[in-house]
């Protein structure tokens, strides 16, 4: 939608580099990069009520419920820094979440502009995930998160392709090349 705002979703498997690229694009575009994974990890670290609720789910590689995520995302996207748009990293992750996001955007008379889909071969994903070594990155958990991604999140690729929003970017290159390709894809 040409309303001078820019609403971008980053889509891709765990380990595809969404977080890094979201930060870089945010800098280039002067938009906030909103990572639901980082928000949830911060809640866990702060031992807030939300953190206590999601900790177990996250460390097992499962998804936090759509209802809980809807509340988290609605509150975040209503903040002032989202007035000119945003880059979403890690949301939506299920078809139900695509509907919630569409409703949020509709309620403020705007729409999604681009879905940047980052592709990376499986072997590379596993290699990268094991290098990260976060609490939720143990080998079994990495495998589980990839399985959950295939089952719950991969269907979003077709969903957004049909909506004409999908921009596919080869993520198996240097970080600079990927950033450049993403900038090109949204021009
Ligand atoms: P990734 O390494 O795939 O980028 P994230 O850091 O985005 O992972 O997310 C870490 C964990 O937080 C997920 O495995 C999941 O448990 C939870 N999470 C983050 N975003 C969502 C979401 N949109 N829906 C459900 N759970 C989520």
Word description of this protein:
The longest helix has 15 residues, at 139-153. A five-stranded parallel sheet has the order 2-3-1-4-5, sandwiched between helices. 55% of the residues lie in helices and 13% in strands. Helix 1 packs across helix 9, helix 2 crosses helix 3 and helix 4 packs parallel to helix 5. The mean pLDDT is 94. It has 187 residues and is an alpha/beta fold. Adenosine-5'-diphosphate (ADP) binds at residues 14, 18-19, 36-37, 40, 57-58, 61-64, 69, 90-91, 93, 97, 136, 145.
Please render the helix and strand layout as text.
Elements (H helix, E strand, L loop, with lengths): L5 E6 L6 H12 L3 E3 H10 L3 H11 L6 H12 L7 E5 L5 H13 L6 E6 L2 H11 L6 H15 L1 H8 L3 E5 L4 H11 L2
Parallel strand pairs: 1-3, 1-4, 2-3, 4-5
Bound molecules: adenosine-5'-diphosphate.
């Amino acid at each position: 939608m040409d309303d001078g705002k820019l609403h971008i979703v980053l889509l891709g498997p765990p380990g595809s580099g969404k977080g890094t690229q979201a930060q870089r694009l945010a800098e280039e575009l002067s938009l906030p990069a909103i990572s639901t994974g980082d928000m949830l990890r911060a809640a866990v670290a702060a031992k807030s009520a939300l953190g206590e609720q999601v900790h177990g789910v996250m460390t097992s590689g499962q998804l936090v419920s759509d209802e809980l995520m809807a509340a988290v995302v609605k509150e975040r996207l209503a903040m002032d820094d989202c007035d000119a748009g945003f880059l979403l990293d890690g949301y939506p992750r299920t078809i139900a979440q695509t509907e919630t996001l569409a409703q949020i955007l509709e309620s403020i008379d705007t729409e999604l502009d681009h879905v940047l889909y980052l592709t990376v071969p499986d072997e590379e994903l596993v290699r990268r995930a094991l290098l990260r070594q976060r609490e939720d990155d143990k080998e079994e958990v990495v495998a589980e998160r990839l399985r959950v991604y295939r089952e719950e999140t991969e269907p979003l690729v077709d969903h957004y392709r049909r909506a004409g929003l999908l921009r596919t970017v080869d993520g198996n290159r240097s970080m600079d090349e990927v950033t450049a390709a993403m900038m090109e894809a949204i021009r």
